[in-house]
Amino acid sequence: MNVVELDASTLNHKELNDRLKECIVHGADKIILRDVYGQRYIGTRLHSLESRRKVEIEIFGTPGNDLGAFLANHKIIVHGNSQDGVGNTMNDGEIIVEGRAGDVLAMSMRGGKIFIRDSVGYRAAMHMKEDLEKRPVLVIGGSAQDFLGEYMAGGVVILLGLRNVSHRGNFIGTGMHGGVIYIRGAVGDSQLSKDVSPNELDENDREILNQYISEFATYFDIGIDVAEILKDHFIKLLPATKRPYGQLYAHRSTL
């Protein structure tokens, strides 16, 4: 394996991303970034022919906004926290954060998987979407702040509430018209938007949870067996309608 290490302490975000691309073009299989301090867009501009190989990018420090935006195929591991916009419009690959993430996590995410060990900020999974071939997945070990799944159009979101983290976010699923949100533990009706409906799990749901929680547990020491987590109560949130704003935009005749 061709492993390259870069010291990011003296590089601005453009210089760092230029170096990343150069390393991949020259055959790097794994790139370790040390002393990262807020550089934005890490992993974003990797669209050359060579970047179609799956490369692992390991980050020590705190990456800035839009980590892994438009990510295609690669794997990013963050040893620490991340800022806003992680996985913005992500197409494929994996992002693993060994800490917490900021706001608008997985906004417009179209494919791939994101695993966050701790909690996240506002508007996570906003406008997440899917098609017949891609179904994005977001697993959060803690909880999320307000407007989780806002305008969500597809994909899978799982909130685990580990380490006795309670779900205090409100307006869950506002404008949601696709996909599914699974929340472990208690959630009050007042926390849910009128655009979602709570449902009981079926066998397919339990298979989905087992698959992605098991994968989550391979990255983090969660302190509890997956089988024990699956015994707990989960709420399944689905859109109440496929067209929550149909009346707003539909033409009405005045005749």
Compile the SSE list and pairings.
Layout: E1 3-7, H1 13-25, E2 30-37, E3 56-62, E4 75-79, E5 94-97, E6 113-116, E7 137-140, E8 153-159, E9 178-184, E10 196-199, H2 203-219, H3 226-231, E11 234-239, H4 246-249
Parallel strand pairs: 1-2, 2-3, 3-4, 4-5, 5-6, 6-7, 7-8, 8-9
Antiparallel strand pairs: 9-11, 10-11
Number of helices: 4
CATH topology of the largest domain: Pectate Lyase C-like
| DSSP strand content | 15-25%
What is the CATH C-level name of the largest domain? Mainly Beta
Describe this structure in words.
The chain is α/β, with parallel strands linked by helices and 255 residues long. It has helices at residues 13-25, 203-219, 226-231, 246-249; strands spanning 3-7, 30-37, 56-62, 75-79, 94-97, 113-116, 137-140, 153-159, 178-184, 196-199, 234-239. The protein folds into two domains: 1-64; 78-245, 3 Solenoid (Pectate Lyase C-like), CATH 2.160.20. It has four helices and eleven strands. Strands 1-2-3-4-5-6-7-8-9-11-10 form an eleven-stranded mixed sheet, sandwiched between helices. β1, α1 and β2 form a beta-alpha-beta unit. The longest helix has 17 residues, at 203-219. The N and C termini lie far apart (72 Å). The model has no long low-confidence stretch (mean pLDDT 92).
